[in-house]
From TrEMBL:
Record domain SHS2: where: 6-203
CDD domains per record: ASKHA_NBD_PilM-like (cd24004)
Organism: Anaerosporomusa subterranea
GO biological process: cell division
Keywords annotated in UniProt: Cell cycle, Cell division
Superkingdom assignment: Bacteria
Protein name listed in UniProt: Cell division protein
Keyword Cell inner membrane (UniProt): no
Length: 707
């Protein structure tokens, strides 16, 4: 029987490691391994920047491994936690009728919780495009059966099983660039995980996860963090800085090519004095201690970034920190991390995978800190937990995790196609106000899209198989209605009137948004349409384009020149009318020149009524004006109701002085001068003796006696 070979690739920022493993009865055997470094900086911070360059390096590693292991077509990889999104999710399962639970039951719960996490991601408002994220791994934080926490459900019996896990997601760009490099190298991606997940599976078995530990995979571009506590992995995180920051610091300090600076960094702990040539061609021999002193600040800054991420994820300093990855060999880094976390130096250590559960033996080339992640990738590939199937959507390859029963909908979402685009949207309707009434006119219905699998019609709910070819034709949206005024209004019948002996047809007045329009005027959303017949005399006259200009009369009022505007005289069917008089069909309208206004109209008085008061004179009522008014036109008295002569000089005065006893005597025709000489006149106002100039008011009583 042919042995099953597993191919794992650790595609790092500084180097690519490939190893071949073979599952055996007692664990994995490492068959072959190859390691090559990038010739250029084709990767930065865990992200592939030069796909062809990385693909060429993968192809070379693959070719070397194939010489001893035969053709390789599939591989497992891990991604750095760049732009990592972590979600906690849980799922439950009714187990009351299942009997003893099996491994498959646990698997079912894991997949259900993963789908829950994916739904949380799709509904997230914190990410600009949640659909552009891939799930790259998960860690189970615990099982619960009927309220009791358990390490495993296998063999247990109960009513309700619950799982809690942490799912990790990375942007599509990170995964797609890796997929492109693998495809260019002739490889198919079958298993994908996160680098800290791979590392933690090697160094921190489940028996150690009750401890509060922080595992930091310090690579060249990123430092990935995982935290364990209370028996499970509780958090994942990433720091976008690692060993390259130290290399760049050396490069800047001594003007070195990046690759030369990397060589100097690796020699710091091996040699007391290091020789190198800068970009100017000058040869330097510098003590390692001097170089370390110059980059000490940069090492401390990297340590602070790592410590800050650990504290963010864990809340407090952990019990211990395990450093792995090639960047963990950076001089003085463990000491700086311990200082930043205020931990004893012995609690921060660089770990090597000398012995790992699940492996029969580990070759020396993988027994360094940078061998942890590739071993973890291979171990996860052998665990059969999270694998891909490959399908084609509109001739584009799409990789999907085998989360339970995959459907066409999963493939369409994985291809970045919005499922809503398959249902042709109805056209935008029009909302139009017609004569102050809001009316809605719907758009046309959309046409649904078409889906086929391997040329056969399919539905979103149809199941997927590996290598399926899916064609998706998006639906067509319906058109918005094209409408004109004639489509939305009922045009009232016109009528005729006679205006100044001219027979005139009165047509409906049509406006759109207050502007004159016709029945063919096109309408837009939110337009306001008005179509109505003129009803009043003013409206009818305006529609006939008859200009009824006012006549301007000039006057001088109390010494000030004033203008008085008078509209033409209007009559309807022989009767005086106003601009708001309602007009019926066949009405006869006559418009005549304006006549001068009356004095009262020019002065703006509502009326010229005189207010009077009544005083009892010797027991007889006597009426007299309450105030004195004077009205003159061209220095001549004039009636308030008289027409004001054009250009007339009008004087109007009102005295607010109250009438006096003398005014009462004049109004009563009592003249003291007509009395006999020597007569004595006695005047009483309300029983009191007063003078002739004493003021009077309404209801007063005046008695006059003559002796």
């Amino acid at each position: 029987m042919e042995k099953q070979l597993l191919f794992a690739l650790d595609i790092g920022t500084r180097s690519v490691v490939g190893l071949i493993g073979c599952p055996g009865p007692n664990g994995l055997d490492i068959i072959a391994t190859e390691r090559m470094e990038h010739h250029t900086r084709s990767m930065l911070d865990g992200q592939i920047h030069d796909v062809p360059e990385v693909a060429q390096l993968i192809t070379q590693i693959k070719a070397k491994l194939e010489k001893s292991c035969g053709p390789l077509h599939e591989t497992a990889v891990a991604a750095a936690g760049r732009s990592l999104c972590t979600l906690r999710a849980q799922a439950d399962l009714d187990t009351s009728h299942r009997g003893a639970l099996s491994v498959q039951d646990e698997r079912t719960l894991e997949l259900a919780a993963l789908q829950c996490a994916q739904r949380q991601l799709a509904a997230s408002s914190e990410l600009p495009d949640p659909a552009a994220y891939y799930c790259v791994g998960y860690s189970v934080t615990g099982f619960t059966l009927d309220g009791t926490k358990l390490i495993s459900l296998v063999g247990q019996r109960g009513k309700t099983a619950v799982i809690e896990l942490i799912a990790t997601f990375l942007p599509r760009q990170v995964i797609d660039s890796m997929q492109s490099a693998l495809t260019a190298a002739g490889l198919e991606l079958t298993t994908l995980t996160l680098e800290p997940i791979a590392a933690i599976n090697v160094l921190i078995p489940t028996t150690m996860r009750h401890l509060n530990l922080a595992l930091v995979d310090v690579g060249a571009g990123t430092s990935d963090v995982a935290i364990t506590r209370d028996g499970s992995v509780i958090a994942y995180g990433m720091v976008p800085s690692a060993g390259d920051e130290i290399t760049e610091a050396i490069s800047h300090q001594y003007l070195l090519d990046f690759n030369v600076a990397e060589t100097v960094k690796r020699q710091l702990l091996k040699h007391k004095r290091i020789t190198f040539t800068d970009v100017l061609g000058i040869v330097h021999k510098v003590p390692a201690a001097e170089i370390l002193e110059r980059i000490q600040t940069n090492i401390a800054e990297l340590a602070r970034d790592i410590a800050a991420q650990i504290l963010t994820l864990n809340g407090v300093a952990p019990q211990a920190v395990l450093l792995v990855g090639g960047g963990s060999l950076t001089p003085l880094l463990p000491q700086a991390v311990a200082q930043s976390l205020e931990l004893p130096l012995a609690r921060v250590a660089i770990r090597k995978p000398e012995t790992v559960d699940g492996f029969n033996s580990i070759p020396a080339v993988l027994s360094e800190p940078d061998g942890v992640t590739p071993l973890g990738i291979l171990k996860i590939a052998a665990s059969n937990t999270l694998h891909f199937i490959s399908v084609w959507v509109n001739d584009n390859p799409v990789r999907l995790f085998n989360l339970s029963e995959l459907t066409v909908a999963d493939a369409i979402l994985g291809a970045g196609i919005d499922a809503r685009s398959l249902h042709g949207r109805p056209g935008m309707g029009l909302t139009i106000r017609v004569n102050s009434e809001t009316r809605f006119f719907p758009g046309q219905s959309g046409q649904p899209g078409q889906i086929t699998i391997n040329g056969e019609p399919a539905k979103l709910t149809d199941s997927l198989v590996d290598k399926a070819s899916i064609t998706v034709a998006k639906g067509k949206s319906g058109a918005s209605p094209r409408m004109c005024v004639a489509d939305v209004v009922d045009v009232p019948d016109s009528f005729t009137v006679t205006i100044n002996t001219m027979l005139t047809i009165i047509q409906p007045v049509i406006t759109v948004n207050g502007q004159a329009a016709t029945m063919e005027t096109q309408l837009n959303d939110r337009d306001e349409v008005c179509c109505c017949l003129p009803k009043t005399a003013d409206e009818v006259i305006n529609t006939c384009e008859i200009t009824a200009k006012p006549t301007i009369f000039n006057y001088v009022i109390n010494g000030t020149e004033r203008e008085f505007s008078v509209m033409p005289n209007l009559s309807v069917n022989g009767k005086p009318a106003r601009p708001d008089t309602l007009i019926e069909a066949n009405a006869v309208i006559l418009i005549q020149d304006a006549t001068p206004p009356t004095i009262t109209e020019v002065l703006g008085l509502d009326s010229f009524r005189e207010e009077t008061l009544v005083v009892q004179f010797n027991g007889t009522p006597c009426r007299l004006p309450a105030r004195r008014q004077s009205l003159l036109c061209d220095n001549q008295p004039i009636s308030p109701d008289a027409l004001a002569p054009i250009g007339g000089n009008i004087t109007y005065t009102v005295s607010q002085t109250p009438p006096t006893v003398s005014d009462v005597l004049l109004a009563a025709d009592f003249d003291p001068r007509s009395l006999p000489l020597g007569s004595q006149v006695n005047v009483l106002l309300n029983g009191r003796t007063v003078e002739y100039l004493a003021p009077v008011k309404n209801g007063d009583q005046i008695e006059v006696t003559v002796k």
